[in-house]
Amino acid sequence: MGSEPIARSFEDYGAIYDNRMGLLGGIDFGTSIYDGHTSVQAIFFDQLPVGFWVHMSANHMQEDYQQRLIWDPALYETTLQKISETDE
Fold first, then answer.
1. How far is Cα 54 from Cα 68, in angstroms, rounded to an integer?
2. How many helices (H) and strands (E) does the chain have?
């Protein structure tokens, strides 16, 4: 919670991240400052195109994505929509 971007978006936030084979992975939790909703999540990517894998491996893009899933309802809904389209 010490960083300004985290404090700007979360009432509470915590995470444990690890780096395996160049791709950051982990679990995080947070309470959105916007709607007070608390989320706990772990994100697993599979079937990634190589270019996307390289992008997600750079500069902790997955960490940013996970954080945004908690406080950005549009990104969360879009993610669920794309997952359901893939499952069909």
1. 20
2. 4, 3
